[in-house]
Amino acid sequence: MKNRDNVAEWGPESVRALRKHMDLTQDELAQELGTRQQTISEWELGLYRPRGASRTVLGVVAERTGFRYDASCKGSSSRT
User: What CATH class has 1-63?
Assistant: First the structure.
């Protein structure tokens, strides 16, 4: 799903699916993004959603790692 600015929305399932796609722990993903592990946990629990630069960076990371979020399949790789 994309918002009015045509930027992907990152819900709990998509953040978790991206992290698992990258084979990272919450702490490792936090280090990659320059944020706290608690922030990743809060995103995955649905307490908060990534916004602003965090949302943009997640999109760039997803694209570079070949991750494509599809709500029907809970994340997949576009690599063959």
Answer: mainly alpha
